[in-house]
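Course assignment 3, question 2. Fill in each field.
Student: A.L.
Task: Predict the tertiary structure for the chain below.
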Amino acid sequence: MPADQELSLFEKILLATDGTVTDLIALYAGETIRVKKLDQFIERRDAPPALRCHEPTRMLQRRILLAGAARHYLYAESQFVLERFSAHLQQQLLETDTPVGMLWKEARLETYREITAKTIEAGGEIARHFELPPDTDFVSRTYLIHYQGLPLGSITEKWPVGWFRD
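Answer field:
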């Protein structure tokens, strides 16, 4: 991670927040932010150790963009332990484009976000969603979402360095 002065104040806020990123970006951008699902699928497999599953389980994999009217603001990939969600939340995750943080807020889930990684790395394939070359540096953060003592899943969010300059 480069020195903090290379990131804008808003980028530092995004890296540190344990709140809903969609709300923050909407405030920053002054526009409604929507989820654009790139793909999503369920597979039964071993979960990463941080998710504390002791046997293969149904995992929901998602890749999304947070988008405004004319611009993509953030790319995110997530993996969730499906059985740790209520049937209603499972349905909402699978069938709607509502941001996951908003779903938790609407369901009044008391969650805790634990940031596990912050990096800057080349965007690679995802840079094309921002109309940038693959070698463009992207800020990245990964966090676990805990609910009732167990991790629901993990989310990695990425955006181009300097994308949120004042």
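Instructor remarks: The helical segments are 9-16, 21-29, 87-95, 100-106. The chain has a mean pLDDT of 90.
Grade: pending
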